[in-house]
Specification:
Number of strands of chain B: 20
Shape of chain A: elongated
Structural class of chain A: mainly alpha
Helix content of chain A: over 70%
Radius of gyration of chain A: 40 Å
Oligomer: heterodimer
Order of helices and strands of chain A: HHH
Largest sheet of chain A: none
Number of helices of chain B: 18
Number of strands of chain A: 0
Shape of chain B: elongated
Radius of gyration of chain B: 37 Å
Number of helices of chain A: 3
Strand content of chain B: 15-25%
Strand content of chain A: under 5%
Structural class of chain B: alpha+beta
Largest sheet of chain B: 5 strands, mixed
Distance between the termini of chain A: 133 Å
Chain lengths: 113, 571
Amino acid sequence: MFNKSTFVTLFALFLLGSLTYTIKQKVIELDNDLAQVHRNIAHYQESMHILNAEWAYLTRPSRLQALVEEHTGLQHCPGVSLVSYEEVFQQDDELYQAQESLESSVRLASMRR
Amino acid sequence: MSRYTPHDNAGHRPQGRKYRLALEMARNRLVIAGILFVFMLFGVGGRLIFMGLNNEGGEPLFVHDAVRSQFHQGRSDIVDRNGIVLATTVTTSSLFANAKKVLDAEIAAKMLAQALPGYSQVKLLKKLKSNRPFIWLARHLTPKQRDRIMHLGIPGIGFRKDFKRLYPHGPLVSHVVGLTNVDNIGIAGLEKSSEQFLLTEGKPLHLSLDVRVQHAIVDELKKGMTEFSATGAAAIVMDLQTSEVLGMVSLPDYNPNKNVNLESDGYFNRATVGMYEMGSTFKILNTAMALDLGVVTLATKYDTSEDIKIGRFSISDYRANHGVINVAQIFVHSSNKGSVKMALDVGTEGQQEFMRKVGCLTRCNIEIPEKGQPIIPRHWRQANTMTISYGYGLAVSPLHLLNSVAGVVGDGCRKEATLIKLKDGEQKRPCDRIVQSSVAHKMRQLLRLVVVQGTSKKANVPGYFVAAKTGTRNMLESGGAYNKNRVSTTFVGIIGESVEKPRYIVVALLEDPKGLKKTFGFTAAGWNVAPIGGRILGRVAPILGLRPNLKILNEGFDPFLQSVDFSKTKK
């Protein structure tokens, strides 16, 4: 009643069925993992969202100013305190030259003595 | 190929034939079904292999969509120009009841009132007895409150995920950002006007505001209000190049995180809705108008020795009788009489057209819904032309003054102030030419002279080019008469590296400041709002990275202006 081709067909059916089942199970597993990853991402995004709001709340300029006034006594930075990068070295050079001339005059005075 | 079996014989032939045919048919059908089934399996298998190799499903897109659909905050954030959060939405729990399923409403109301301090037991009972299938009992509960209620185990009540709008900076940007109602629908400020964007775009709304600048303004205004016992104040700082508003404050203000009474004084936006006669700051517009139309030059002289009569009223100058003085001296000494004569030379129609051009006759086009309509004369007669020249008879908001003066002193080109951060390509927006560039340059020089020689000396900021003008006007009483003892004072100032490079503009206003011992009882703008405006400029400039310039502050000045003696006045 059953010849060779029937057995081959049944075997192929069994093989493909097993393969389909295995792949399906793996896909379900991966799908669950993916869903978990999505949930984690959403959770972290929500946490970051709240932390951003909290950071904005904690770094309110009025709060920072009150803390600075209470603990450091620092003043507002006036505009004239700002200089360019080049001017910093320019001022250093001037200071160095003044220091050099002061030291040479001291040396001269001590030699005279 | 024969399929006969050994049991077949002639006597059974007809039945055997029938049987054979049936068997043949069944076999054929089975083979066809088997072939079809095998083809289908091969099809499914092939498809699986194809999908695995080809990545046709677009996996990354799927992940992205899934994340977006899972994390839904309801309403986009509003952030300042540096990305600092000004308004955000957090997930909360809200308590509802199915009143039909509540077994004992009185016990439930009592237990809930104990778990939720601040909630009225009577109101809760009324809701629980309403017999409605869904009714909110309490919105936006804290996690602790939620836990307490869950432990009560009351049947017929439940929780729903809800969203609550939070404003981390509290009142700091309240008049700009606005607020939402309990259902997260915008009811004021940008929350109302940008509703569509916030609900659909899924990305933050970037404002042009800078919270550091905003705080500097609030801090200085509050100190000024306290010092001079003023009833209200407002100030706006704007970038002259892009017309982006960096700070906009109206005091008193309100905290959008709390229940806001929309009728309260704090809710009123003085910067955009409050209409004020701007006093002598209008002389900026008056002088620019006369210069631009070619009616006068800086050297044109007017006799200001006699008071000007309008009916039973007379127009005089605040301080001294200056005699015959030129346009530059009229501006620097803030002569009302000189300004009136200049306006009369321009004419009523010319003035009206100029005021329309600078935007002082129509509502401003800023993004928030709270903006007022200027109060303009019903019949614009010569008397109105005279009073408007020195800032009486036409009431505008501080924002109107900012827009118009920025246009006149910037580069003579008017751009509407915006509260939305501009993208790189948008910063050079088209503008409406209102005065020639040379007139704008002259106006900046005149304003600088007001700081050096005139009424705004207290607004000077060492290291920067500061140019400014003040205005003082008597307040109107309910009957329509001016009260000589109450004033509102205005300040308009620009700051930059030099007369060629103005960068930021500030408009500041104080309502009803009082005289102090240190001001010798005076309430004029030069004594109160000018130093406040100067301090705002002095704090804001370093924050915004404006470099000081100690060398060329007065370079590039008109030779004529350098020859004028502003100290001489005829007493």
